[in-house]
Amino acid sequence: MTYCVKCGAQVEDGIGICPQCGAVIPGAFDTPDPQDSCGEQNTYNSQAYGQQNTYSGQVYEEQGTYNGQTYGEQYTYNQGYGYEQNTAYDYDPEYFPQEEVSRNKLMGVLSYLGILVLIPIIAGDKSSAYLKQHMNQGLVLFLIETVFDVIEKILDDVLYVGGILSHVVDIAGFAFLILAIMGIVSAAKGTRKLLPTIGNIQIFK
Length: 205
Known about the structure:
Elements: E1 2-3, E2 10-11, E3 38-44, E4 47-56, E5 59-66, E6 69-78, E7 82-89, H1 98-110, H2 118-123, H3 129-158, H4 163-189
Antiparallel strand pairs: 1-2, 3-4, 4-5, 5-6, 6-7
């Protein structure tokens, strides 16, 4: 009985892939010759996985798929302890998939440019979680800005009230600008982080 180095689950002898998290069990497969590079396609427990192994200097890298899930692993050789494993899965809790971001980045940025948020709402990919997040935030920001603009007009043109109330509206307008810039940066980078306060308001689900 061995243990998974990633999640700590018990793994029966002879099992090469952790059934809990999908990580490769170190030592379960033959280590390639340090002087060679090899690619191999194997079948294990009636489940197919593919892997490419390369060895360059002190780093042994492995890429493959298991049960439809892509994983990337890197083994770094340490003279005293042998291979050390680091596993990097395609899913990153802090970022959207890069392919999805690339397809929708323009629409994501437009979401924070005032009334231009209507473009992604009308023509954007409604199935994209990335775009939904930015359409939500952009539309909420646009609606709140519109309300504050109306309030400012009433204070200045109807009630003729200036002073402190007018300054409060101006400060709010500056805060909206900061939120819009934060949203554009987030859309460009593809992060999942929500904007303060307005990020939790869900219009598109």
